[in-house]
Amino acid sequence: MKKGYRMTALAAAAVLAAASLFPPVPAEAEEPAPQALGETAAGEAPGNGMLLGAVAAGSMTAEGNELKVYVAVQALPGTAGIDHINIQFKNPVNDRSVTKILRDRDYANGVYAGWITMSIYEPAGNYVLDKVILQDTNGAYLKYCRAEDREENDKYQTLPFPAGFTIANGVAVLDETPPVLGAVTVAPVQAAKESPLTVTAAVADDFSGVDTVAVRFENEKGKAISIDLEYQGDMLYSGTIKKSQTKEAGTYRIKRVSVADHMGNSKIYYGGDGPFASDIFFVIQ
Asked: Do 236 and 182 form a contact (C-beta atoms < 8 A)?
């Protein structure tokens, strides 16, 4: 798949074609008082006059480590006006799902629209429209799902039309394993106040690649120094503790290292764990 961000109006155009069948949706609505999803005002029927008009998804695009698809929804607002729309697509093969909440700020020209964002390492496959939930400013809602998922008295309506998009990135297996941390070093291990130090860590990931590495040290008084490491090549990540961070003397021992990959798998290693079998510290004099 070619990478490169480009706005697409395919989804919005498809919905706009259907929008002519419905009266205009108000562009703004007053902020409602907090209310749990599913609650309705006294004497009001669920749905409160809302109606789903159309849903469309545009073509897939890629930018860096993200996949994006533009989705658009047209709906009748009912008597109270729409507070937000929750739209969910699902891959029936692996049950992976993605959602998007559309609000007033996403409304223009009779359509609620916005980008659904996923990892570029999301497994390839077809995502089908799975659920749409409309909620008005009074907390009343109207829920839609696929016909095969409806159960008796579950208060869902059947989605009146299909919609979906396809991920064709060649990824066949879901990445569910967080990165693995190897050794961590600090140089120099002894320095004067307001001296910079370099922290290096070896981190490996089996598929989607390491996204973030964060290290935290603390001295005897609880003074903390945190640093984010950047990739240097050959599974090595390093960063510089700045002069402004070493103004207080003491022995700074490693407390934890947080690692995450591009699929959101993460793990926290604490002092004493695996790679910290031998104490890791530095001294500011």
From this structure: no
Element (H, E) at 143: strand 141-145
Backbone angles phi, psi at 69, to 5 degrees: -135, 135
Cα–Cα dist 146/158, whole Å: 6
Coil vs helix vs strand at 121: coil
Residue 176: count of CB within 10 angstroms of its CB? 11
User: In the predicted model, is pLDDT for residue 153 greater than 80?
Assistant: no
Q: What was the pLDDT predicted at 145?
A: 95
Q: What is the mean pLDDT of residues 122-150?
A: 94
Helix H or strand E encompassing 18: helix 10-19
Quote the pTM value.
Answer: 0.68
Site of tokens 């990540």? 237
Tokens for 36, please give them. Answer: 């749990």
Distances (CA, A) of 152 to 140, 158, 161: 20, 12, 20
